[in-house]
Amino acid sequence: MPPSNLGVLSFVMDGIHPHDIGTILDQEGIAVRTGHHCAQPLMERFGVPATARASFALYNTVEEVDALAEGLEKVQEVFA
Amino acid sequence: MSDLRDLYQETILEHSKSPRNYRKLEAANRTAEGYNPLCGDHFTLYVDVQGDAIRDIGFQGSGCAISKASASMMTQSVKGRSKAEAQQLFRQFQELVTNQASPNGDKDKLGKLTVFSGVSEFPVRVKCATLAWHTLQAALEGTQQPVSTE
Q1: Is A10 on the interface with B (CB under 8 A)?
Q2: Is A72 noted as a catalytic residue in this protein?
Q3: Amino acid B142: pLDDT
Q4: ipTM for the complex shown
Q5: Separation in Å, CA of B64 to nearest CA in chain A
Q6: Helices and strands, counts by H and E, chain A
Q7: Which residues contact A54 (CB under 8 A, 6 or more apart)?
Q8: What is the pLDDT of residue B40?
Q9: Residues 35 to 74 of A: which have CB under 8 A from any B CB?
Q10: Residue A1 confidence (pLDDT)
């Protein structure tokens, strides 16, 4: 599998801490991991306090991807 | 399901965007570092203690909205208070965010800190809300080691 096809997506949102992203997504029934992911040196390297991370696998559906996207819009609403 | 608006109240969002007393205090005679390695929250607290009084206080660092707003409002609440009063506020605050406050307790002493009551519905966020307070305690006690909530 080419490395560009990995299903693990780490991301940040401008001005919103990943922990706050995680709590809001959790309320929407979406589980992501937030924090350092046991990779503190890498966080320092990129100058971010933490990241949020969504992991997709074979059993995830397109609807679930849409739910994540909607959840992220909700995060932006709360912090607008 | 607990309401997000109970957690992210307007006051909390506002303080996280424009934290008060967000500065290094040149006159500080006590400093302490607070760290939450799992979240990545990291704050330094500067306190100017004269006798028994917290004459001035400031903080710097980064963290989630809850931890930053809590640090901001903590500095406002303890500025000008005695060390004992600050300790008492910390105890009451801890009871508030862990939902252990007695119904006839003197919650009104907390003043606007009661906006953090929604945190009790989100157990994993209690550490975010109390990080600055633990750091204050370390600063007042003169602890040299960084405070960790883990």
Answers
A1: no
A2: no
A3: 83
A4: 0.82
A5: 5
A6: 3, 3
A7: A8, A9, A11, A32, A68
A8: 78
A9: 35-36, 40, 43, 49-50
A10: 58
Residue A24 forms contact with B (CB below 8 Å): yes
Alpha-carbon distance B83 to nearest alpha carbon in chain A (angstroms): 31
Q: Which of B13, B16, B39 to mutate to test the interface with A (most CBs of A within 10 A)?
A: B39
pLDDT of residue B59: 98
Low-confidence ranges of chain B (pLDDT < 50): 1
A16 touches chain B (CB under 8 A): yes
8 Å CB contact of B4 and A16? no
Q: Which residues, 6 or more positions from B9, have their beta carbon under 8 angstroms from its beta carbon?
A: B115, B118
The domain segmentation of chain B, as residue ranges, is 2-145
Residues of chain A with confidence (pLDDT) below 70: 1-3
- CA angle at residue B116 from B114 to B121, to 5 degrees? 120
Closest CA to B6 of A63, A27, A55, A52: A27
CB-CB neighbours of B8 under 10 Å: 21
CATH of B2-145, one of 3.90.1010.10, 3.40.50.2300, 3.90.79.10, 3.30.230.10: 3.90.1010.10
Cβ(B61)–Cβ(B16) below 8 Å: no
Residues of B in contact with A49 (CB under 8 A): 40-42, 62-63
Instruction: Give the minimum alpha-carbon distance from A1 to chain B in angstroms, rounded to a whole number.
Output: 31
- pLDDT of B2 reads 64
Other residues' Cβ atoms within 10 Å of the Cβ of residue B2: 11
Query: Which position among A1, A31, A38, A58 bears the catalytic label?
Result: A38
